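Today's session is about reading a structure prediction critically. Students often jump straight to the picture, but the first step is always the sequence itself: look for stretches that repeat, for charged clusters, for runs of hydrophobic residues. Only then move on to the predicted structure, which in these notes is written as discrete structure tokens rather than atom positions. Here is the chain we will use throughout the hour.
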Amino acid sequence: MDFAENLKKYSNVRTISIAFPASIFDYVPTPQLEAYLVGQVARAAVVFNVTEVVIFNEVQSDESQSRLERLVKLFEYAECPQYLRKKVFGIEPDLKYAGLIHPLEAQHHLRTSQIDCPYREGITTEHTHYEFKGKSQEFTIVNIGLSKPVHLPGKHPLNTRVTVQVDPADLRKMQAMLSSTMQAPHAALVSPVDPIEKLNLYWGYYVRSAASLTEAISGNVFIPSKKNFYDIIIGTSERGDCLDDIEFKKSEKKDKPNQEQGERPAKKGKLEFNHILVVFGGVKGLEHSAACDKQLEGCNDFRSIFDYYLNTCPNQGSTTIRTEEAILITLSALRPKLNL
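Below is the predicted structure for this chain, in token form.
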């Protein structure tokens, strides 16, 4: 199943995306603490069923680009089930301290004892063929983190992460049988959207990098060629409108408030959406991210690029709220209002 086609299927399910600048790591003094902070943000994303993590640059330089690529790799590493990491990532200098990332305990990070779920993440390792149903057939061997691999009918690309469906009864039988002569269970190749649609499971996030705030908002990982993918885009700032005073419109993006004329959302009801993006600023705030964006030069009110520009923690006791804290606060505050 084509990777791009799998991503397109996310257009049929509700997605939650978060975006933040790589500069949130500016004041992290060591690579060990950087990995730890990645783990904090990744866990926040998983807790709130985030489907897409977007990391964008505020300044363009070789150093900032190198850091952005390293952060993307660390977030992807955190999302990957533990039993696949060595095969997927190998040994890389950027992942030297990835062991400090706390386990996400995501629903697709299944342990060997968790064999009642019919879906598992795996990686294709080798091809084989043998007689099945009276004729010689080709299969692809897939490591799914259990005592034995499963066999996928057909010849599929190797060293590729896949989502498979396998009968839990076959898995229980396989785990109970110690005999090496037992034939590996057969699995079916499915889309990673299947566990979401059919069992309402959370199945991890994708990571996207962006060169600027504008690119973070205008792009998406699911259908890159499609502009305006998100129904709702929310910016967050201590200078935003107090979330407590906002009563979201029951509308689509076409009804977004006219920020330049001072209009604000005023209609009661939970906001209806399929794809939402929540954007966070760095140490210097989202205003600084906008000021660094050359595509926003000359823009009288950069707030107009958002559907809502919110302060989700009014009357804060600290003079600053760290981005990893803001993500938890904001998604917690939005959850009852948006039915996240």
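Discussion point for the tutorial: Residues 119-197 form a domain with the OB fold (Dihydrolipoamide Acetyltransferase, E2P) fold (CATH 2.40.50.140).
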